[in-house]
Amino acid sequence: MGMQSVAVACGALALCLALSTATNPGFVVRITQAGLDYAQEQGIAILEKELAQLKLPDISGDSRVLRVGKVHYELSRLRLRDFQLPYSRITPISNVGLQVSISNAFAELDGDWRVKFLFIRDHGSFDLKVENIYIKILLRLGSDTTGRPTISTSDCSAHISKVRVLFSGKLAWLYNLFHRVIESRLRKNLESKVCDNVAKSVHNDLQMYIRTLPVTAKIDNKFGIAYSLVAPPRATAQSLDADLKGEFYSLAHRSPVPFSPLPLAFPSDHERMVYFGASSYFFNTAGIAYHKAGALVFEITEAMIPKDVEFKLDTSVFSAFIPQLEEKYPNMPMKFRLSAPTAPFLTIGPGGISFQPIVDAQAYAILPNSSLAPLFLLSLTGNVSAVINVRSGRIVGSLDVGRIRLSLKDSAVGTFQVRMMQSLMNILTSSTLLPRLNARLDEGFPLPLLDRIQLSKILVRFHQNFLLLGADVRFQPRG
User: Fold this and answer.
1) CA-CA to 12 of 20 to 30 Å: which in 103, 124, 244, 274?
2) How far apart are CA 164 and CA 144, in angstroms?
3) How far is the C-alpha of 435 from the C-alpha of 430, rounded, in Å?
4) CA gap 349, 247 in Å, rounded
5) Residues in the chain with pLDDT values less than 70
6) Angle made by CA atoms 155, 161, 162, in degrees to the nearest 5
């Protein structure tokens, strides 16, 4: 596992990444220095335990000792008892990625020694203290052809400034005569082993971990969201940003979006560890995908009206406004088929999310043989606002509809004044259609998160052309 600890926590925060041909992203993830500091706290504790299990090879060699001659020595069963990393930091490096810096680290080892010179053979044990260990790792972040994130070690250096070895046994005094040779070999061995372990762990473990983020997030069995990278993650002096496609699409038929994302003027906000910027493009692609798939079609029948709403959906009620109904279809149940002639288009500003959808409401009379007789077609418009939040890693919301305005588009029962039906249609849609929409929005849409990430202290703010979600992060280790 090795280096997975430091970089996993960082990756757990930062690499919420996921193909795009658009110049601008529809969705942006920003990791602040506070997020990287959290990564450091979580990762170093794990790294200390893993480095303490670092396996070192046996060492053997010959050394000439004054007034003794050539001495053959062997050091075996080298065991790391402790490895502590008191100071470390993860910082973004422009045009590279992330730098992990560790300083003033120290380790304690023990092992067995064996010596042979002339006709004398002996063995014993030794203790080794390694102090002032400095490690610097550069992690390069990129993306592959599918828009998945990639990570690699672009550089690693380890330096040990102080090694002290103490031998015990009958001939320990002899080992202590050439302890500097032993210390030098142990130092070089440790330095190379640390970086070898880092490179291996980044390639095998961390790269595998960041691939727990799919390039698409499935919403249900009909729709998904593309969260692929439109460019490699970019580091600045204060944050790590990932530009994502951020586009809803139909699983059955994916078609191009007829407009492009606008630039996002991300604010310099650093209160939270991670920020998500969801542009109006992101939400409007949802409207297009759902509209093209025919998912914005709803039927309203009397069975859907709550019992506490004193309303009967039949021709006798509407005959008060349309006298012709009583003559042609007396006391017959009715139903409405609501559909959007065009995809809804919303706007985001400092005041929130709003839009003015146009809905066609086709009224039918349900004949005794269960066939439908078209009555009239209304056009409904109204001001709609949205409340947005985050729950369990998903964007959730609810809609609030203002007064609905009606106009008559077509009628099979003659002309009539629709203004008198205003309140009736408001009651009908608010009691049936709105609860269905809000129930779906309450299920939410998944955010681009890696495995084992939880969000807390959610912050919701609205800016021109995008919604800003801030959160602190908790990484849940396995087990």
Assistant:
1) 103
2) 46
3) 7
4) 20
5) 1-22, 46, 50, 65-68, 171-178, 479
6) 140
Facing residues of 136 across strands?
A: 101, 157
Judged by DSSP in three states, 248 sits in strand
What is the amino acid identity at position 363?
A
349, 353, 357, 363: CA torsion to nearest 10: -160
Q: Tell me the residue type at 342.
A: T
Backbone angles phi, psi at 150, to 5 degrees: -130, 155
Surface-to-core class of residue 123, CB atoms within 10 Å of its CB (0-12 exposed, 13-18 middle, 19+ buried): middle
| pLDDT tens digits for range 248-281 | 999 998 889 999 999 888 888 788 999 999 999 9
Calculate what percentage of the chain has a pLDDT beyond 70: 92
State both tokens at 16: 């919420």
Give the CA angle between residues 435, 439, 442 to the nearest 5°: 135
3-class SS letters over 110-160: EEEEEEEECCEEEEEEEEEEEEEEEEEEEEEEEECCCCCEEEEEEEEEEEE
Give all strands of the β-sheet with 27-32 in edge-to-edge order: 234-235, 239-244, 27-32, 274-279, 466-475, 453-463
Residue from 101, 133, 52, 98 nearest 206 by CA: 98
* Cα–Cα distance measured from residue 303 to residue 224, given in angstroms and rounded to the nearest whole number: 31
Which tens digit of pLDDT belongs to each residue from 188-207?
888 888 888 788 878 887 88
pLDDT digits (tens, 9 = 90+) for 300-316: 999 999 988 888 899 99
Q: What was the pLDDT predicted at 17? A: 39
Angle at 118 between CA 112 and CA 122, to 5 degrees: 25
Provide the 3-class DSSP secondary structure of residue 232: coil
Torsion, CA 316, CA 321, CA 322, CA 323, rounded to 10: 70
Tokens of 39: 């990564």
Q: Which of 67-74's residues contact partners 24+ apart within 8 Å by CB, and which partners?
A: 68/117, 68/174, 68/177, 69/117, 69/118, 70/117, 71/115, 71/116, 71/117, 71/174, 71/178, 72/115, 72/116, 72/117, 73/113, 73/114, 73/115, 73/116, 73/175, 73/182, 74/113, 74/114, 74/115
Per-residue tokens: 214: 């799919």
What pLDDT does residue 175 have?
A: 67
Q: Write down the pTM of the prediction.
A: 0.86
CA nearest 473: which of 275, 238, 211, 236? 275
| Residue 163 · residue 186 · CB < 8 Å | yes
478/149 Cα distance (integer angstroms): 22
Q: Helix, strand or coil for residue 238? A: coil
